[in-house]
Amino acid sequence: MPDIHISERLILLFYFLPIFLISLSIHEYAHALLAFKYGDDTAKNLGRLTLNPIKHLDLFGSIIMPIMAFTSGFMLIGWAKPVPVDRRKFKDVYKNDAVVSFAGPFANLILAVFVYVLYLLLSDSAFMQSHIVFSIFRLTIIFNIFLFCFNLLPIPPLDGSHIVFDLFPNNYTAKLQSLGMYGTLILFIFIYSPLWSLFMNLVNWIIGFFPM
Questions:
Q1: Any domain includes 164
Q2: How far apart are CA 127 and CA 132, in angstroms?
Q3: What's the rounded mean pLDDT across residues 15-23?
Q4: Measured between alpha carbons, how far is 212 from 210 in angstroms, rounded to an integer?
Q5: Could you confirm whether 8 is annotated as catalytic?
Q6: Which residues neighbour 143 within 8 Å (Cβ) at sequence distance 6 or greater?
Q7: Residue 53 lies inside a defined structural domain of this protein
Q8: What is the pLDDT at residue 118?
Q9: Which among 129, 20, 36, 14 has a CA at the least distance from the CA of 83?
Q10: For residue 57, what are the domain limits?
Q11: How far apart are CA 77 and CA 48, in angstroms?
Q12: Which one from 21, 28, 106, 148 is the annotated catalytic residue?
């Protein structure tokens, strides 16, 4: 007989992967849109000012890695192609770049709020009684709240590190930014440190404002 646990995880993956791709696309689109608003057309010229997930996909980070992590029971790990931003085209470099950096995480928070409001409006309907539909709504809300919090961590190359530098441009924050090439390693250390529990407590506290 097939492993029921594995089968359930695979079914959950089919629910989750579209949510994952759409959420990442909205995140990157928000970066591109605000950058364009502030005078940087780099992302637009590269076809990244779009909600089309295909334009934002990173084959390994958006497809292979999430599937491997999810089906193996490991924490979900994945990423989209970062939207290119040319700060030199901004009129107010630090302010504009901070807003552009915050736009991605904020878009994920807005998506979570939108889906939750939609859930409340449909909660008494027969449509929402479907376990599949309920799971999709719940996963979308939880994942986008997680993305909002995670991307605001001041760890390069996450958006939070850009925001910290833009708000407090000095030698220390510049050195933090220069650690971008070691970002993945730093993130893994953070995930397996006691700080991760504190971070997840914050995420769960915010999720608590979205009872379902």
A1: yes
A2: 10
A3: 86
A4: 6
A5: no
A6: 16, 19, 20, 23
A7: yes
A8: 96
A9: 36
A10: 4-207
A11: 22
A12: 28
User: Token pair for residue 160?
Assistant: 């939070």
Q: Does residue 211 surpass a pLDDT of 60?
A: yes
Residue for token pair 């994952």 = 20
112 by Cβ neighbours in 10 Å (0-12 / 13-18 / 19+) ranks as buried
Tens digit of each residue's pLDDT (9 = 90 or more) over 108-138: 999 999 999 999 999 988 888 888 899 899 9
Each residue's pLDDT tens digit, 56-111: 988 777 777 777 766 666 556 667 888 999 999 999 999 999 999 999 999 999 99
How many residues comprise the chain?
A: 212
Residue 119 burial (CB count, 10 A): 18
> Which tokens in the block code for residue 67?
């599937």
Q: Specify if 212 maps to a domain.
A: no
Whether the upstream peptide bond of residue 157 has omega within 30° of 0, thus cis, is yes
Burial of 45 (C-beta count, 10 Å sphere; 0-12/13-18/19+):
exposed
Q: Mean pLDDT across the stretch 25-44?
A: 96
Domain count, the chain: 1
Structure tokens at 79: 């990423």
Residue 18 lies in a domain: yes
| Beta carbons within 10 angstroms of residue 58's beta carbon | 15
Report pTM.
Answer: 0.88
